[in-house]
Design brief:
Elements: H1 19-24, H2 28-31, E1 42-43, E2 56-57, H3 70-73, H4 78-90, E3 93-97, H5 104-114, E4 121-126, E5 136-141, H6 144-181, H7 185-207, E6 212-215, E7 225-227, H8 233-237, E8 239-240, E9 258-259, H9 262-265, E10 270-273, H10 281-293, E11 295-296, E12 315-316, E13 320-325, H11 335-343, E14 345-349, E15 353-355, H12 358-375, E16 380-381, H13 383-397, E17 402-404, H14 407-423, E18 428-429, H15 431-440, H16 444-458, E19 467-469, E20 471-478, E21 482-494, E22 501-504, H17 509-525, E23 533-539, H18 553-565, E24 568-570, E25 573-575, E26 578-579, E27 585-586, H19 591-600, E28 605-609, H20 620-623, E29 627-631, H21 634-641, H22 645-658
Parallel strand pairs: 3-13, 3-14, 7-10, 10-13, 16-18, 20-25, 22-23, 25-28, 28-29
Antiparallel strand pairs: 1-2, 4-5, 4-6, 8-9, 11-12, 15-17, 19-24, 20-21, 21-23, 26-27
């Protein structure tokens, strides 16, 4: 973020509003950065710290008042919220980077509500008598455009009525003369037809003088908000419709074929572009021109545009751009466009989680009330249903003492639970409805994972008891929230040339590196001459997606060591964890989902990194099914996973002497692997 972000914009900065208009906007403090749930509701401060509702004493969300403005409904993204308010006041562009569903579009829409309505304009396009291919553009205050078009149309209608009267009088005179003079009736009808055609042609010319109301803000109660995400060039920048009857004066006048783009419709408002990196470079360059100039001519942008080279005079597009995307959005973004945003605006990163506090839990209760009110058809949620939703928010955060900020998926769960209650015609949505909704709203990945586990049971590919040499039950994540058990097998064979490690299962780059890290540990402790051995590692049924991430490191190490030493691995144990070249077990992501996958697969123990112990938030149904064993070092992992006491104990003692804990497990791994 540039150093001058808090300074007032220079007078000549593009898109800058007059100071007096900016001063009329409410400040961050006026809008209430710490928006209360409802000052009238009772809060029990004595139980607030441990209570899932933060001490909020309610029977249902019906008692919670929802703020009117979107900016007051934003939860968790306080920094982004304050930046949006500042950007609205100073008319600055904003780029928001973060995961989908964290509130980027909601903040952009909230920004439009903070902009002054009195600045809005209507845009009219007039025919150009000197050059039909360059229509003229005029801006008027919002609401005046309709009046101007109506006045022109009324005038055109008057002329057409007079012309019609004259035309019918002329036709009647010709027909009367033909009949009275005894002239050829056919000749009279032909003359009448010529008169009709001439007057009709003149009438089209009169209609063509009526201006085209390109942008109509007459009914706008707030500044425009245009979501141009995924829009093609014509929809974003404006276009000119194709007319097959362009020649011979039979076609639609060029000014009537002009179509506004999102940049023109968002004039004096907000243009929201999510996944901005999906725009091609040429379109991004034109967008940058529109930002710089505050106006942009409309011409043919698509293959179905007008064949004639129609190009209007510059059309106003003084918008505030809110660009959004994931982290990769910055890679394919035009450098000059991003520089423009940084130079005249703000960049903000959207958080995925927020610290779990009583105040935040109360705001999550308000979030549910907001979703119910926004939908308009859902029954309100009881207090126990709210508690279950807040528990799910804790669980989805993947971090101890945090709540998820992925509100789109959480809102989806609210709607599914409400739909269940509504289908049964109940007054309120209960905890049981939320539990049923959690099962119904499983992601595609979770449904596939559950189906995969069941199929493997049918074909006896899953082993969860006894001991097997060189086979370990590893754990992985499909998508973002779906755990699955992924066996890893190892075999030692004589080398045909120099010894090497051969891994199969469509390993991706990070997984390949983790295999190499494991081989470093094996070479250090093993008495076997590995230069004469090939180590074969197979990720069983890894699927088309292959294996990514390094969370299978301890699984690979255990399988290889078991195969080298001919010591069986306890198949009732599953494991996940990354591994350093010195033998430390490092933290990983998705630990909760992996533990639940192990429980579903029938394992009774699961090994996880010690550093991830605080992140475990499994469902109640799995707590009695599986024992969670945190480990800090590979020797601890082997002590739990291997069978055959005398041989195992000797191996573990030998490993302890050459590996040690290098890291402080309380601080290690602030950025764990996603797998």
């Amino acid at each position: 973020m540039n150093n001058d972000m808090n300074d007032d914009p220079p007078d000549d900065a593009p898109g800058t509003a007059p100071d007096e208009e900016a001063d009329d906007l409410e400040t961050v403090e006026d809008l209430g950065s710490d928006v209360e749930v409802d000052s009238d509701l009772e809060i029990d401060e004595e139980i607030a710290e441990d209570d899932l509702l933060g001490g909020l004493v309610i029977d249902s969300t019906e008692e919670i008042e929802v703020p009117e403005r979107l900016v007051d409904q934003v939860i968790g993204q306080e920094e982004a919220r304050e930046i949006i308010i500042k950007a609205a006041k100073q008319r600055r562009h904003v780029m928001m980077i973060g995961s989908p569903g964290t509130g980027k579009s909601m903040l952009a829409k909230a920004m439009s509500q903070l902009l002054p309505q009195e600045d809005l304009q209507d845009v009219l396009v007039y025919p150009n008598p000197d050059d039909d291919n360059e229509p003229k553009v005029r801006t008027v205050p919002a609401g005046k455009g309709d009046q101007i078009v109506d006045a022109h149309r009324e005038e055109a209608d008057k002329r057409n009525r007079m012309r019609s009267i004259v035309m019918w009088i002329a036709i009647a005179a010709i027909l009367a003369y033909t009949i009275l003079s005894g002239a050829s009736l056919l000749l009279g009808l032909l003359a009448a037809g010529v008169i009709w055609f001439i007057f009709r042609t003149l009438g089209r010319g009169s209609d063509a003088m009526v201006p085209n109301l390109l942008v109509n803000n007459g009914d706008q109660r707030v500044a425009p908000f245009e979501d141009a995400t995924g829009a093609h060039a014509g929809a974003l920048l404006g276009d000119v419709r194709h007319d097959p009857f362009q020649s011979g004066g039979m076609g639609t006048p060029s000014h009537e074929r002009v179509e506004p783009g999102s940049i023109h419709q968002s004039n004096k408002g907000v243009l929201f572009l999510d996944e901005i990196n999906t725009l091609d470079i040429q379109t991004q360059q034109k967008l940058m021109t529109a930002i710089q100039e505050g106006e942009f001519s409309i011409t043919g942008q698509s293959e179905r545009s007008s064949g004639a080279m129609v190009q209007t005079e510059p059309v106003p597009c003084d918008f505030i751009m809110v660009a959004a995307g994931n982290l990769d959005a910055m890679e394919n973004m035009h450098p000059a466009l991003r520089n423009r945003i940084k130079g005249y605006g703000y960049e903000v990163y959207m958080e995925d989680t927020i610290e779990d506090t009583p105040e935040m839990r109360r705001k999550y209760a308000r979030f549910v009330a907001q979703e119910v009110e926004r939908d308009g058809r859902l029954p309100h949620f009881t207090d126990d249903a709210l508690e279950e939703l807040i528990l799910e928010a804790k669980r989805r955060s993947g971090r101890k003492n945090h709540l998820t900020l992925h509100f789109r998926t959480l809102g989806g769960l609210v709607r599914v639970a409400g739909d269940i209650a509504r289908a049964e015609d109940r007054e309120f949505t209960t905890r049981d409805d939320v539990l049923r909704a959690k099962d119904r709203s499983r992601s595609i990945e979770q449904q596939l994972a559950d189906d995969y586990i069941e199929r493997r049971k049918d074909y006896e590919l899953q082993v969860n008891e006894g001991g097997v040499e060189g086979r370990v039950n590893g754990l992985a994540v499909m998508g973002e929230d779906s755990g699955i058990m992924l066996p890893v097998m190892a075999e030692i064979a004589p080398a045909q040339g120099g010894g090497q490690v051969i891994a199969t299962g469509q390993l991706k780059e990070m997984a390949e590196e983790s295999v190499q890290n494991v081989s470093a540990i094996i070479k250090k402790f093993s008495d076997v001459d590995l230069s004469e051995k090939d180590i074969h590692i197979q990720f069983v049924q890894a699927g088309e997606g292959g294996v990514d991430g390094d969370s299978a490191s301890i699984t690979v190490a255990t399988a290889v060591i078991s195969a080298l030493e001919n010591i069986p691995v306890d198949q009732s144990v599953a494991m996940t964890g990354s591994l350093s070249v010195r033998g430390d077990v490092l933290p990983i992501g998705g630990v909760t989902h992996k533990i639940e996958a192990a429980a579903k697969a029938g394992c009774t123990k699961v090994i996880i990194p010690e550093a991830n112990e605080q992140d475990v938030m499994i469902e109640e149904e799995y707590e009695e099914m599986i024992e969670i064993i945190p480990c800090a070092n590979i020797s601890e992992v082997l002590d739990v996973a291997l069978m055959g006491e005398p041989k195992k104990d000797s191996l573990v003692d030998r490993l302890k002497s050459i590996t040690g804990t290098t890291f402080d497990q309380s601080t290690v791994g602030s950025n764990p692997s996603v797998q």
